Amino acid sequence: MFKPLEGSTPTTTVPFLMEGRAVQAQPGEMLATALLRAGVDRFRETPVSGSPRGPLCLMGVCFDCLVQVNGRPNVQACMTPVEAGMVVQWQRGARSLQGDT
Ligand code: FES
Question: pLDDT digits over 56-73, tens only?
Fold first, then answer.
């Protein structure tokens, strides 16, 4: 469903991990688009039912793209550029307002 525009294939990639799986991003790419292109459609689980959620707006409004990055919860994947070596995990349960759990 998601793919780069024709002629925009980068010569270098930025490696990171999603739930232990190696993923390659384009330099400067946002985390959400890199994950969607890699076939990841589950970014977080709802606190009550555990239903899966994924990016909806891709512009920082809906908060359905929350993930954990390097152990830090509540990271909006659509607003976060990929960095080499990032360790990304699903956001599980309710988000914390303090951002520390
Ligand atoms: S996709 Fe809506 S806030 Fe990230």
Answer: 999 999 999 999 999 999
